[in-house]
Amino acid sequence: MPRTVAFLGSVNVGGNRVAMAELRAALADAGFANVATVTASGNVLFDHDGTSDAALAARVGDVVAARFGFRTFAAVRTAVEVAAAMADNPFATDGEEKLVHTLFLDGPLSADGFARLVADHRGRERLAAGDRAVHIDYVDGAGPSKLTKTFIEKRIGRQGTARNLRSLARIHAVMTQAQT
Questions:
Q1: Which of 77, 94, 112 is the last residue of a domain?
Q2: Is the same domain home to 9 and 50?
Q3: Alpha-carbon 43 to chain mean position
Q4: Residue 62 to residue 69: CA distance in whole angstroms
Q5: Can you state the angle between helices 165-179 and 79-88, rounded to 10 degrees?
Q6: Does residue 177 have a pLDDT over 60?
Q7: Average pLDDT over residues 76-104
Q8: Residue 180, pLDDT score
Q9: Rounded distance, CA 139 to CA 157, Å?
Q10: What is the Cα–Cα distance from 36 to 169, expressed in whole angstroms?
């Protein structure tokens, strides 16, 4: 069974508080195998039987809605895809790992959507298109940036949830450690 991560959006932010032990239990109760979490921001690891990413993302979202009372977005990726996202991020070599993010999307990023994002962007942040992702270097920090999740999603027509390089490295290490 492949080791997979579901990056959940809107978990432990904006009032959507979920204890990771409760999240693990909810997914295990729903039939997910070998469930683990990494950090408290909704990074859930599990093994699965080859079900599509879209179906897994929908199941995770349904479990969270049923158990915790709010809808969430889940971007599902394998360890290979997480490693590729880090390697493909053009800002990984010269940006600060806590400021360089990958926004994982619910589907492919269209060229038109990315062009709208770049055209409407008015900040110092650097942007690059990725595979079902947008890579962002929040040069001055994500907190003061006007390049918000809502701003991005409106322009690209996709949902997403972001993780910085430091978090992705930690998640990937746990994913691959579990496979050895």
A1: 77
A2: yes
A3: 8
A4: 10
A5: 150
A6: yes
A7: 96
A8: 45
A9: 24
A10: 16
